[in-house]
Specification:
Strand content: 15-25%
CATH class: Alpha Beta
Number of strands: 12
Pfam families: NAD_binding_10
Strand order of the largest sheet: 3-2-1-4-7-8-12-10
Organism: Schizopora paradoxa
Shape: globular
Helix content: 25-40%
InterPro entries: NAD(P)-bd_dom, NAD(P)-bd_dom_sf
Protein name: NAD(P)-binding protein
Order of helices and strands: HHEHEHEHEEEHEHHHEEHEEHHE
CATH architecture: 3-Layer(aba) Sandwich
Largest sheet: 8 strands, mixed
Distance between the termini: 24 Å
Length: 294
């Protein structure tokens, strides 16, 4: 054994062990409500959780999105997957999702992967319609979230949002993040501002523009610190590559509360982190911000 390698690193390089009997039982009784799970990270995470035995509720604007999905339909027919029609931008739809998902017992996890389909404008880079899709949807989720018990919340953000995070980016990525992704990142930064309030964390960045996060937004929520059971996941630039962790275990990517300075990570590997690490080892990640990349 190389005694110069930290013990935690050695553990991460080991193959994934089969779940214990206790883990299997916990997963089989777990209930997850997903916002933004029709594709990408939300979908891949939900797929892994369903395969592990969890029950997953999807709120979808278009319930027909899964009509031809044989795997999800298999879980719908077996009573492990449920589809709730609704739009996360509509407060009443979000409230209904929580009501239906918690009808027969508490929700264990809320997975928030809402995102828009940006369009390119030469003068502005990528723009969203609406420009506050993430932050406005998150406000709706936090306002409707049950208080007793409070579900654990995992949300997808991005690297490069804050000054420190932007400075750690590889030099080749800084222009892209500063110009091309400026407007989508303003929305995600506003979302993180809302989460910092909910989790009771000090906010050290500039306040988001009122055009993204309107003044008085705090009035929609309880007192600061009411939702400390949160995990903010900041992936590197996302790709549609294969899941390296399926072959390499947790060593297939890096996950840290420190800046990584990496280039990319596949959506499937981010989903692996969520389903195989964050959910299964929640106490390690609760109330933190974790960067994920290669």
């Amino acid at each position: 054994m190389d005694h110069g390698v930290p013990f935690e690193t050695i553990l991460d390089r080991l193959p994934l062990s089969p779940p214990t009997q206790l883990q299997t039982h916990i997963l089989s009784t777990m209930k997850v409500l997903v916002f933004g799970g029709s594709k990408n990270i939300g979908y891949y995470s939900a797929e892994r959780l369903l395969d592990s035995g969890a029950t997953v509720y999807f709120q979808l604007r278009r319930p027909s999105a899964f009509d031809e999905d044989e795997k999800i339909q298999k879980y719908v027919k077996s009573g492990k997957a449920f589809i709730i029609q609704g739009d996360a931008l509509k407060a009443e739809d979000v409230q209904r999702a929580f009501t239906e998902a918690s009808a027969d017992g508490p929700i264990d996890f809320v997975l928030f992967t809402v995102g828009g389909a940006p369009t390119f404008k030469l003068s502005k880079g990528m723009v969203l319609d609406p420009p506050d899709i993430c932050s406005a949807s998150m406000l709706n989720v936090l306002a409707a979230m049950p208080r007793d018990p409070v579900p654990k919340l995992i949300l997808i953000s991005s690297i490069g949002l804050t000054k420190t995070s932007h400075e750690s980016l590889p030099a080749l990525l800084k222009p892209m993040y500063g110009y091309l992704l400026q407007h989508p990142h303003e929305d995600k930064l506003a979302m993180e501002r809302v989460i910092a309030y909910a989790a009771g964390r000090e906010w050290k960045e500039e306040e988001p523009s009122a055009s993204i996060l309107p003044e008085g937004w705090q009035s929609r929520l309880p007192e600061a610190g009411f939702q400390k059971r949160t995990l903010v996941v900041r992936p590197a630039f996302l790709t549609d590559g294969k899941c390296k962790a399926d072959k390499e275990g947790n060593a297939g990517y890096r996950a840290s509360d420190q800046e990584l300075g990496g280039y990319t990570v596949s959506r499937r590997d981010v989903a692996h982190f969520i389903a195989e690490q964050a959910v299964k080892d929640w106490e390690k990640y609760e109330n933190s911000i974790i960067n994920v990349g290669y």
